[in-house]
Amino acid sequence: MEITYYGQSCFLIKIGGHSILFDPFISPNELAKDIDVDSIKADYILLSHGHQDHVHDAERIAKNNGSTIVSTFEIATWYGEKGIEKTHPMNIGGKVTLPFGTVKMVTAVHSSSLPDGTYAGVASGFVVETEDKAFYFAGDTALTYDMKLIPEQFDLDFALLPIGDNFTMDIHDALIAADFVQVDKFVGMHYDTFPYIAIDHEEVKEVAQMAGKELILMEIGQTINL
């Protein structure tokens, strides 16, 4: 499974010939200034919640590619009114089957509103299950016992977890979350973009290693296979 990181919580994951983009916040991010937003190809755009640092480039990329936006009913409706022709509305606990596999929307403990102040429903995470692998994209969230339900339904290969603290979990809570969802390997996200969420890379890696977990911190623009 090929994963490319575009900063903050934005990842492009290629699954069986399909490209799935999560939470695109690229063009305003100074750390991602070398990324050409218009070169990104996405079949589906999954939005965990409505905050600008997760949705800023969604409309632009969707219109460039004819992408389908998958999100809460409120967010999907908002983008439909902005001229996005393909949307799929969901809510917590719901699951949809798409050409690359299934997507289940799961609990995230966080706030959510769109850039113009419109109510965006509740924040969410996603569990994606394909023929080959399954993974958990946590979105912006606090540590929550609801995470313990995920491995009762899915055998995850890895997770993508926020580690920047202040607005979300820090590394210590993320390690507990990794235990809750029963993964030994996770990709860090939602860090360094703003002073509030700056982290010490070596320190968090050491903390993860001491806990027996593999923490992957990707460079912006880097592609890896998991």
From TrEMBL:
Keyword terms: Hydrolase
Hydrolase as UniProt keyword: yes
Keyword set includes Ligase: no
Gene Ontology MF annotations: hydrolase activity
Domain of life: Bacteria
Domain Metallo-beta-lactamase: 7-190
InterPro entries, sorted: Metallo-B-lactamas (IPR001279), RibonucZ/Hydroxyglut_hydro (IPR036866), UPF0173 (IPR022877), UPF0173_UPF0282_UlaG_hydrolase (IPR050114)
A Pfam entry, by short name: Lactamase_B_2
HAMAP family (UniProt xref): UPF0173
Record family assignment: Belongs to the UPF0173 family.
Protein's UniProt name: UPF0173 metal-dependent hydrolase GWO68_14975
Organism encoding this protein: Pontibacter fetidus
Source species taxonomy: Bacteria, Pseudomonadati, Bacteroidota, Cytophagia, Cytophagales
